[in-house]
Amino acid sequence: MATKKFLLNENDIPTAWYNIVADMVNKPLPPLNPATKQPLNPTDLEPIFVRELIDQELSQERWIDIPDEVRELYKIWRPTPLVRATGLEKALDTPAHIYFKNEGVSPVGSHKLNSALPQAYYNKKQGIKHLTTETGAGQWGAALSFACSVFGLDLDVFMVKVSYNQKPYRRIMMQTWGAQVVASPSDLTEAGRKILARDSHNSGSLGIAISEAVEKAVLDPGARYSLGSVLNHVILHQTVAGLEAEKQMEMAGEYPDVVIGCFGGGSNFSGITFPFLRHKLSEGKDIRVIAAEPESCPKLSRGKFEYDFGDTVGLTPLLPMYTLGHDFQPADIHAGGLRYHGAGTIVSQLRKDGYIDVDDIPQLESFEAGRLFAKTEGTIPAPESTHAIASVIRIANKAKEEGKPCTILFNLSGHGLIDMSAYDQFLAGKMKNYSLSDKEIAISANALEHLVP
Amino acid sequence: MATKKFLLNENDIPTAWYNIVADMVNKPLPPLNPATKQPLNPTDLEPIFVRELIDQELSQERWIDIPDEVRELYKIWRPTPLVRATGLEKALDTPAHIYFKNEGVSPVGSHKLNSALPQAYYNKKQGIKHLTTETGAGQWGAALSFACSVFGLDLDVFMVKVSYNQKPYRRIMMQTWGAQVVASPSDLTEAGRKILARDSHNSGSLGIAISEAVEKAVLDPGARYSLGSVLNHVILHQTVAGLEAEKQMEMAGEYPDVVIGCFGGGSNFSGITFPFLRHKLSEGKDIRVIAAEPESCPKLSRGKFEYDFGDTVGLTPLLPMYTLGHDFQPADIHAGGLRYHGAGTIVSQLRKDGYIDVDDIPQLESFEAGRLFAKTEGTIPAPESTHAIASVIRIANKAKEEGKPCTILFNLSGHGLIDMSAYDQFLAGKMKNYSLSDKEIAISANALEHLVP
Fold this sequence. Notes:
The structure is a homodimer of 453-residue chains.
Chain A: E1 5-6, E2 16-18, H1 51-58, E3 63-65, H2 68-74, E4 82-84, H3 86-92, E5 97-102, H4 113-125, E6 130-135, H5 139-151, E7 154-160, H6 161-166, H7 168-177, E8 180-184, H8 190-198, H9 206-218, E9 223-226, H10 232-252, E10 258-262, H11 267-283, E11 288-294, H12 299-302, E12 304-309, E13 318-323, H13 345-352, E14 357-361, H14 363-377, H15 383-402, E15 407-412, H16 420-427, H17 438-445
Parallel strand pairs in A: 5-15, 6-7, 6-9, 7-8, 10-11, 10-15, 11-14
Antiparallel strand pairs in A: 1-4, 2-3, 4-5, 12-13
């Protein structure tokens, strides 16, 4: 009988994360101090992040050792399986071989724990007692809640209000692990109060929640802020998934022609693709990587490459990114983790340099793909992950049309068990697409300053 | 660094299920035809089950081959990990070594898929087009929904009404995989209509839902009924978990002193314990097995060993079981899968013969244990599984008191992500215990006929 899963041993968990900056032809542009518009001094970040994470954020070293304590905790669920999606292949009647890395088997249900644990670890090591963070759909907040429970850190989670109300189960998960969760915008911060004063019914966004969490952290010297995507050190931690997948593809005796990840801020996408993209950058290997983003939040395909804030209020450094503008208000799609206006700095530079392709996926196409995956492979995918699956299906169908086999790898970033109300809407025929006119895209981008040289 | 998980390869998935009947000193008493009170003729069961499942139900063979097609599907998630619960051990400061078999990693979130797939397979093989079943909390219904999707079978699930209303996410899961789900009691069956006529607000029970599902199946020659616990063939399929765990304990270089499973009808408990109990039966090996049941549904500790119906209305054969009486109405505890009046025939005989110990767990103790497990090991356990964890903690604390190391193995039957509202109540201090007086226990048992010789 054929092998369905490719499993590694705990010894095969990588001992170092891969930092793609070392192999980039054009290095990312530096973050800027928003007041001076000059490149940021690393110490400027110290009220926000601990020193080891700042070092990682700015590092150009190719490999960064994973601390033993973190690697020990990775063993709770890592290595994750690489699975041949034979059921899906059969349903599509495609000559393509489809593999997925199942990051949904983590105890929190997604890939986010890969970065939550090291972030909590480095904060604990520096004597920090208290973290703050934001969360959209709640995948990141859930991961950091468990990580803080392990290291005995207090955690405040600012959860985007629309998700707080729609996804009570994820709020309860965070509370079960011990976090304090508040709906954002809240009246606990100046940023939140300012927004509520303008619009008392504001349903929140990741950008607003980041403003609140950053503000709360910088006002307390024993606290720091923690982010689940976008930043270089987060993406670095996520490469553990792609590095494992590389070994597992070798066990399968194949090498992917295409590697696909859904795209919000870049953590899941970069984690699976960068270890493969490395060989394109360093050896010219012929491999295609695709970021699957929602058509309602198309920063990579239709955004501008400019300096922009990471949050809505403008508390973060200016980052060079493909962005729809930091006051872009994304539609209420169910893939809450993809509702973010900008792409991380590294991904943005690689996109600009032609290394990354993009698929814009309408919401209905994503859920059709997700349901087919559930019916054939069992796991009900997270709304975010369904975007990657839709992109996979496009490639697999093309392979069928052309009668040309190809090998596809994608990251199943998480399961969708907390998002069943979205599937309920889909099954009831009540879900819709949100496409954007060029005019709508232009409005929020107009506010951007032109600081890219 | 120490090993945390013990992982097998797909080749290590067992090739045969273990049938403990072969090794029992006293074989189970036969099921009786309720009309004649005489032992059942196997053909009496043919309107309800397909022939291969009836053969398994009555088999005394020690090993029954797992069909290749089923074993291939087991590869979707099997072998499951055996995990050393080092985080929990540390929190308890116990000399005990605690291992758990993580059946929650299945795509449906529990061990139930171990039997759903072979049941769907054998039905498909005999040309059946349509299955009916009942489900309480929804773990079984979810598993059979995916299994029917794989084999292209129609499925009607009668879901206990209280769960249908409290756990909409599990209903949606079943619908995502393609099943039709109705709240039971329903007006689709004579059994349901009869109960609704007496009590239009009846919130349902597993016993009632079984009556409805059996009735619907027997009226359609192309349909059969499917059950997720209690019966011998279901328990047989579940031994795949314990057989794997045996190999994995060997990898860990230990042998369990105690094996623990939560107890509803017996599928999870028997699956993990019978492959170990085998060595006690056949070689006199010194091993203790414990069934962790809710104190509010204490059939093994306080029920009677008598012939009783498997359902409320009285459509099934009479089975020899420890039972609280088939009209026992269990309290609305959150562990829906444990709200059943009787124990399977095999377990009942083994309990009678002194091979099985019982722990009765109050609801609050179970959730305290579940939360500690979540905070230390990550996975939020299903309310059913928290009973096993509570029992583990009792043993581990005793080991600490006595300063005597011991090795404990338990089955984590599933995760609790669909049951977060229960954790919400627990965290808010709104959960309560339900203990039963001897008088309450006696009332429903009074209706039992005394047919055990």
